[in-house]
Amino acid sequence: MRFNSILVANRGEIAVRVMRTAKSLGYRVIAIYSEADSEAPHVKMADEAVCVGAAPVGESYLDPQKVLKAAADTGAQAIHPGYGFLSENADFARACEQAGLVFIGPRPDAVDLMGNKAEAKRRMIAANVPCVPGYEGEDQADDAFIAASKDIGFPVMVKAAAGGGGRGMRLVHDAAELPDAIRLARSEAENAFGSGELILEKAIIQPRHVEIQVFADVAGNTIHLGERDCSVQRRHQKVIEEAPCPVMTPELRARMGAAAVEAAQTIKYRGAGTVEFLLGADGAFYFLEMNTRLQVEHPVTELVTGLDLVALQIKVAQGEDLGLSQDDVALTGHAIEVRLYAEDVAEDFLPSTGHIDLWDPAAGEGVRIDAGIATGLEVSPFYDPMIAKVMAHGPNRDVARQRVIEALRNTGIFGPQTNRDFLIDALSQPAFAAGEATTAFIGETYSADDLARQAPSTQMVGAAAVLLYHSEQHAAHKAAIGVDEELLNWGSTGRLSTLYRFNFDDNAIDARVVAGDGKSWTVEMDAGSVTVSLVSWNTHRACLTIDGATCVVVFALPRPGTIHLSMADTSATLTNVLATAGMADDAAGGGRVLAPMHGLILEVHVREGQTVKKGDRLAVLEAMKMQHQILAEVDGTITAVACAAGDQVPADELLVEIEIDEDTDA
């Protein structure tokens, strides 16, 4: 069936990215959205948009009938699922076909087969594709996994048979940890994918995660488009991806590419797919899984091949040949992509939510930024915390790396906590710069102390104080009548000075701004003083000279007395508590356990009157598709349990109250 209209059954950056290509090819595009996404960029970009329900994914994006009804109501002829949500749901692909819609993706039987890690692995073993030793049996009893683990040997990886993205996955180092890991992985898998089926695999320590992009048309022509190295991960979720792999050789690429093509041809694959492998230091590689959809990291392949993968998907879905042979595929230069997550790195990468006070992406040679956010919108707790992808292409790896770093430095993203500063640091690490990063990179490179929130430097405090002072003075001058500009910064007793008191981790940082000549100020602090000169200024960017060194500061002023700012590799939010006294309640103490974010309480493990020790599990909260264990921070006795399984709780809601033992070092 030929088609000229496409409903994009997704949200965020991937919906925007698919629409961009579809519109450029002349297709009419239709968006779907939840009540939480009514003002989202993908909604505004579409030719038509349909609300499909409330914010929770099960009531909107993951409801096949609502998506199909939206297609019928708008006259859509094809559906592009993006990634995540229904993209690897074979029943949805079948339902599209039954409704007379073209599913822009593989055949349902291929989705079924490769979407189940256990069955996929069995098929790959039969096709002589190298696989990691493990257990993918139909017996899902805990005893079966425990018995299999003894044959496999520890460490092992417990994995959800359906889905991916690190959800339903646990690394287990010894037998005592296995039953709890199985329970948690199964629960997380059921909530994320609707299936609690698990597999076990031998944990390959410190491998590279290398994947091959494959493409096949309806006639069976199958090629690969080279590889991507996706080794830099945290909690089994990718953070940095690049193409080509830094240690790839032509001979190894040929062998891995041939294995990936064989995997696709074995199941009569159609469209875009990715075959993922673990690559050992000895050059041995093992099949991990096949993703039957477009990958998050597909742009790095586009940047090194010059191909538009969404355009190829649409072409194949129209029944056309690829029009490419393996000899036509050439890799030029190097590309690196980083995933910009809304997360608090200092809190073990805990997802973050909230109002986006500023989204101001950078531009530059070779730079591409894919995003689905905008200033003024909310990062909600209902969806994945990835909010944008920053990538760059260059003639070689180091140029691409430096371009991504500069793009991150010049991108303004304020409101929720993000991993911007962490990404800049990771890209700058010697091991990454040398192309040596494996899946162990983050764990080997960073300790908890390394990831802890750092106090702002005197230069950053000085810049914040001057920018606040200047903006407040500018606003007051505009509102005043008949005040000569030459009188600014002057009082009857001489040059004016203004005290700012910033609070950082319960420590006050005093900064006194002493006015100079109208474009230069001295900022006095306990740690020393700095001289700040204003070179230029606009809404969100200022060029400052601090003690003679010139720098560009990206900033936002979301409310009186508060400033977000980024200077080179560091970001901070500082609030002048002298201007906001009485505006906020005191933070809770260690005995008051608050929800770290909006989410669903899945389990409560304590009751009133129970004694607990620091580190004991109090509850399990699900947010942003992940399960988070709420742990006691002190020894004591539970005096109140303010939540129950099934409760939706907002951020900072009281969950549990603990009377702290007097001898506890809280």
SSE arrangement:
Blueprint lengths: L4 E4 L3 H13 L3 E6 L7 H5 L2 E4 L12 H11 L3 E3 L9 H9 L3 E2 L4 H8 L1 H10 L7 E2 L6 H11 L3 E5 L8 E4 L5 H16 L4 E5 L5 E9 L5 E13 L2 E7 L6 H17 L4 E9 L5 E7 L6 H8 L3 H9 L16 E8 L1 E2 L5 E2 L2 E2 L2 E3 L6 E5 L6 E2 L6 E9 L2 H13 L2 E3 L5 H9 L1 H4 L7 H5 L2 H4 L6 H22 L10 E2 L2 E2 L1 E8 L2 E9 L4 E6 L2 E10 L3 E6 L2 E11 L2 E6 L2 E6 L1 H4 L11 E3 L4 E6 L6 E2 L4 E7 L2 E6 L4 E6 L6 E2 L4 E7 L6
Parallel strand pairs: 1-2, 1-4, 2-3, 4-5
Antiparallel strand pairs: 6-9, 7-8, 7-9, 10-11, 10-13, 11-12, 12-15, 13-14, 15-22, 16-17, 18-21, 19-23, 20-22, 24-25, 26-27, 27-28, 28-29, 29-30, 30-31, 31-32, 32-33, 34-41, 35-37, 35-40, 36-39, 37-38, 39-41
Pfam families: Biotin_carb_C, Biotin_carb_N, Biotin_lipoyl, CPSase_L_D2
EC number: 6.4.1.4
Cofactor: biotin
What does this structure look like?
The structure is a single chain. Helix content is 27%, strand content 33%. It has 666 residues and is an alpha+beta fold. It folds into 6 domains: 5-104, Rossmann fold; 107-131 and 207-332, D-amino Acid Aminotransferase, Chain A, domain 1, CATH 3.30.470; 133-202, 2-Layer Sandwich (Dna Ligase, domain 1); 339-453, 2-Layer Sandwich (D-amino Acid Aminotransferase, Chain A, domain 1), CATH 3.30.470.20; 458-580, Glycoprotein, Type 4 Pilin, CATH 3.30.700; 592-660, OB fold (Dihydrolipoamide Acetyltransferase, E2P), CATH 2.40.50. The strands form 10 sheets. An 8-stranded antiparallel beta sheet has the order 14-13-10-11-12-15-22-20, with helices on both faces. A hairpin with a 2-residue loop joins strand 31 (549-559) and strand 32. Helix 4 packs antiparallel against helix 5 and helix 12 packs antiparallel against helix 13 (420-428). The chain starts with a strand and ends in a 6-residue tail after the last strand.
